[in-house]
## 1
Amino acid sequence: MKLRLKLGSRRLSVVLPQTTAQSSLQSVRQHITESGLARGTCELSLNGTDALEETRSLAELGIVSGDLLHVLCRDENDDQADLPSHVLARDNFQPSPHQEENLPQEKEGDMKMQRSSDETTMSEPECQLMPDTMSHYQDFCQSLLRLVPEKDTSLPHLTQTATLCTALHSLMLDAGFTPVENGHLLNDTSAKWSYNTPVNDEIRVHLACLKMGHLLSVHGMAKIKEEKVTVSLSLQVSTHVGRDTKTGLWILLKPAELAVVFKDQVTHRLLTNIRTGI
């Protein structure tokens, strides 16, 4: 599972290979402290103020891959603004260009020297760090590059619009939504799927896509306690889907960019509204 962390003024992305939706929040906190990211006693929060119950599972708390967790340290001075360079090196953390520009010159040099000296001896950490950028989604997006297997003759080749719609459906699955049987529709101009949410099995979410000229109009809808919640997004079809010159199939051109936009504008907003509503 991939999670984003906010430690004081820092933002990081972590990969927790052994963590699943059924893992407890306590196990996540232990990974964070054992990796040296947080010193002393700390707690995890979704809103930056209220600590979450550690005995509950991530699924019970509605936490899914890609969510942002605030690390709250009881020591006011321990805001993790300056993590030790050996911790950064050990966990294979590489600051983004903007972060490196803000580092003092001497600390930046020390960090680079320490990182290079440890690279040959460090073991694979349980908690792997990555820059908090679009590369966070690259591994998943690679599986979306070709949505119809070249040798699968039993499936019709998807159209350009249907390829984009199928990619959005895959991103919903990656966010933890479970498709409802017989709750889908896919053709050349429109698509619709229904899902159970990772937050509450009783809440049904619908994703509807409709082609309007060169645009694909995307709507995510949920009904929470008799109140309807809707989020919307418009995508330029030709920007995200193009022909593979070798196979002639439609493929995603910018999978990482699509994943970031859809996650921010649709899945995260839906989950936030659901959590607030219940």
## 2
Amino acid sequence: LQNSPTKSERVVPKTEKKEQSKRTKKIKEDRTESSLVSSSSEYNRVQELYPSVTYSYRGKSMTVKEYLDKLKDAENGVATLDKARNTALNKVQEWKSKCQEATVRVTSLEEKSETDKGRIEGLEKALEDAQSKLEMEDYQKGVKETLRKKITNLQCQLTGAHGRIEQLEGELQMMMKRTNGFIQPPARFPGAKRVKQNNIDEDDEDKMRDKEKNRVEKDQKLEEECTAAKAEVKQLRSVNFNMTQEMAKMRAGHLEWMKSSGTNANNERIEADRKRRELEDECARLQQLLYLQSHTLVDKMMQNCPDWNESASPYGLLPSSYPTPPFYPPIPFIPPPPPPPPSSTSPIPPPPPSISPSPPPPS
């Protein structure tokens, strides 16, 4: 007994406390029920003995039975309220669980939003890179277009330079022919040899060497551009040749169609050939007449102007035999066809116009 703990020192566990509270609650409920039963039986007995006895409850007079009914209604209401309270507690628990689930879901959504934010930043960066690439491509396209225009301009200049070179070569050959070859063509690079002097510094030599190097590089670039231009000209010539062949094929096809188009086309072709022959005959006659008149005019000039020499003649010195110039071949005189017999209805054709002798061209 001395070693046993006192009432204040003894530690009661939680499970034992719960069992004690349950036992005390049950004892109280049993006592209440027994008191209610005893009171109801007593009230019933009193009501049987004294039916006119009434009780006042909250300012109202009622019999024992009415009081007991009120009591039962109150107990039923308490039970209903307990049930409603339990239902509300269950709903509260359910809402708490739903709130926890919603919190977990919100947390997951926040994490997902962070991930999406990182992805959006990456996509924005990729979009900026793509835009910069597009801008660079546009710039490169502009540079290519500018270079293409410059190349076209250089090709045009090169074509003009080639034409000018050919023109100058032709003029040079004409001058050489007139002077019997006394004029020699100049060197392509006059003064290309550089004489080294003693008073030139090394810096000046380096500068001159750099200039020479730059000139060589420019010449190489010009040669490359000339090669490219020649290739393009060759391609254009091939295209022109193909187009010429196509046109020849089309003309041949047109001629075949004309041949196979019927008698009208054949008659028109015969009439055109006849007119062409007439025009050729008339042209030959006029050319012969012009040739004879020119020689007559030259003869008159030689008679009237004894100082007239070969410088005034486009053909040089003319001997007495009057040889045929190389560009006026001798053509036999072909008389024109006789005119048709005049009829009473056809008008008289006008006389041919007189051909005046043309003066000699100036030297």
## 3
Amino acid sequence: MTLKGKELKRLLPSSTRESYLSALRDFTKMTIDNPSFFEKSSEEQREIAMATIQEHKVRGKQAKEE
């Protein structure tokens, strides 16, 4: 199943939407810049993706606090 941008935005919780979208942009850029990502195991790929999302969640919380 492929989601379009508007569908994806609708499914994301509003409180974390910008963090997820920002992480998705960074993740997409990372995979384009470093195609060796796809040579990693699915577990390693998942860990990298979750770390990217977590980093953006923290940034989003910090931005809201400022």
